[in-house]
Amino acid sequence: MKDAFGLPQSLLVLGGTSEIALAVARRLIARRTRTVWLAGRPSPGLDEAAGRLRALGAEVHTVDFDALDPAGHEDALGKVFAEGDVDMVLLAFGTLGDQARDERDPQAAVRVAQTNYTGAVSAGLVCAGALQAQGHGSLVVLSSVAGERARRANFIYGSSKAGLDAFAQGLGDALYGTGVHVMVVRPGFVRTRMTAGLPEAPLATTPEAVATAVELGLRRRSETVWVPGALRVVMSALRHLPRGVFRRLPV
């Protein structure tokens, strides 16, 4: 069970090799988390991530999970919940894609959408149902400021995150009062392997900063968390710019 400050004893990570997710796991293990499930496609990277978390003192398990296989989500994730209550689910999988390539290759664009949105809808609903059945828990969804308004530079990725963000917010409203807390996390540019080589955006942040914000959000029972917090104001302004002006911005 979670403590009075909202921090979990048990954690299920969907996207078990995500640098952001692993930073969150490390921070929570340092506080209170003792059992961690890392869900992802079998790989040396997943095994290495599990080993690093075990070295911090947690009991860590891996589970085969593929965002692009929604038909297998209920079975794969159901096995985790069958082992006992899960205090927190962190939905952290996703792909950035390659905007220029994906515009020329519709199937590649569809893969981005299926991973970031369709797979998340499936896994999110499976976990939400399990959390509701046990009567408590948090579902933390890693969204992105890219979903706030589609930009020419990454509208395929941004549109998939916009869908994910809207889904998570609606799910949070649907679960309000059930004992299940949904928190949407909207980071800006995060310095990870996924963004390596890309031009760094203003207000760039780190996985560790996102982890700090997640912990604070859990303690406050926040519904939406921006990382860094200044992005809330920036995106509010950009969201309301006339389209003709927004189109000309170097974003």
UniProtKB/TrEMBL annotation:
The keyword Oxidoreductase applies. Pfam families: adh_short. The keyword Signal does not apply. Keywords: Oxidoreductase. SUPFAM superfamilies: NAD(P)-binding Rossmann-fold domains. Belongs to the short-chain dehydrogenases/reductases (SDR) family. This is Decaprenylphospho-beta-D-erythro-pentofuranosid-2 -ulose 2-reductase. It comes from Streptomyces prasinosporus.
